[in-house]
């Protein structure tokens, strides 16, 4: 998809091999999802999805990773991100501590109900549409984040990298919390409004490239993140489209060596921060 989408286009959900850039004066968003090596070999569909919606200073982003053991994982992930983003923008809220938390919780509730409704229509357990979910609401230079399951969110402010939300990997290997679980509210982590210049939201297939563990905690891996953000910001500043570049990176041999899982990576760029070419 070449060039920027018009601001009148409100919602995109990209389950596989697609790209998008939302371009306006207040925020640029670019990203891609690609099928991992395991699903390439098995012939299964990509089970990641992401959605973007908004205009002006209000933007919603959602990223989901369908659970591999779920028979309709890709459907559940797609429904979750679409409904979450729609719900975020259905209310006029500021990105304050109280309003942001209420809005994020509402988006997760609506996303979960949409997935459960689809499961009922299919005559299957909601667990067959299970997925993780990360939701971000951006307004006036701040982002509020909600997170269930694995995946990661990295923010940048004034050149300083910070893990805004770490993966929840569960008690056992390859286990993580899911949106459709009965105790979903207990697993929902809400990160209070944070000022950002740039932000990366990604599924667990990208975790190995974006972060390392030190002392039991995830730390942003600067040698990967900083060149990536520099390239994306520069290309956006030149009115280029980095979506295909992100897709190519995610499909590269090096990224496949980090993980054979599906991969989604979404980047938010504030074009007015001092380090941006057009700032």
| Name of the CATH homologous superfamily | PPM-type phosphatase domain
Beta percentage is 25-35%
Helix content: 25-40%
The name of the CATH topology is Phosphatase 2c, domain 1
SS-based structural class? alpha+beta
Along the chain, the helix and strand elements come as EEEHEEHHEEEEHEEHEEHHHE
What is the gyration radius calculated from CA atoms?
A: 17 Å
Structurally, the number of domains stands at 1
Choose one word for the global shape: globular
Could you name the ranges where pLDDT drops below 50 across 5 or more consecutive residues?
1-21
Average pLDDT figure: 85
Tell me about this structure:
With 279 residues, the chain is of the alpha+beta class. It has one domain (12-269): Phosphatase 2c, domain 1. 31% of the residues lie in helices and 30% in strands. β4 (48-55) and β5 (58-65) form a beta hairpin. α2 (73-88) packs antiparallel against α3 (97-122). Mean pLDDT is 85; it is low at 1-21.
């Amino acid at each position: 998809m070449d060039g920027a989408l018009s601001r009148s286009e409100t919602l995109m959900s990209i389950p596989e091999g697609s790209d998008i850039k939302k371009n306006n004066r207040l925020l640029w968003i670019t990203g891609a999802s690609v099928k991992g090596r395991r699903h390439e070999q098995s012939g299964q569909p990509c089970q990641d999805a992401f959605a973007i919606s908004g205009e002006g200073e209000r933007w919603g982003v959602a990223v989901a990773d369908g659970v591999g053991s779920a028979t309709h994982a890709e459907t559940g992930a797609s429904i979750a991100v679409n409904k979450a983003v729609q719900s975020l923008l259905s209310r006029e809220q500021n990105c304050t501590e109280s309003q942001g938390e209420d809005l994020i919780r509402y988006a997760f509730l609506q996303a979960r109900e949409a997935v459960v409704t689809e499961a009922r229509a299919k005559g299957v357990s909601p667990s067959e549409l299970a997925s993780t979910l990360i939701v971000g609401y951006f307004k006036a230079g701040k982002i509020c984040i909600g997170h269930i399951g694995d995946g990661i969110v990295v923010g940048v402010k004034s050149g300083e990298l910070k893990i805004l939300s770490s993966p929840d990997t569960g008690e056992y290997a390859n286990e993580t919390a899911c949106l459709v679980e009965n105790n979903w509210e207990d697993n929902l982590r809400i990160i209070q409004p944070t000022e950002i210049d740039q932000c990366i939201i990604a599924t667990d297939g990208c975790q190995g490239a974006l972060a390392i563990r030190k002392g039991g905690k995830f730390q942003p891996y600067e040698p990967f993140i900083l060149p990536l953000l520099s390239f994306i910001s520069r290309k956006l500043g030149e009115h280029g489209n980095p979506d295909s570049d992100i897709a190519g990176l995610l499909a590269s041999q090096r990224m496949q060596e980090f993980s054979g899982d599906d991969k989604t990576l979404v980047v938010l760029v504030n074009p007015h921060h001092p380090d941006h070419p057009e700032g």
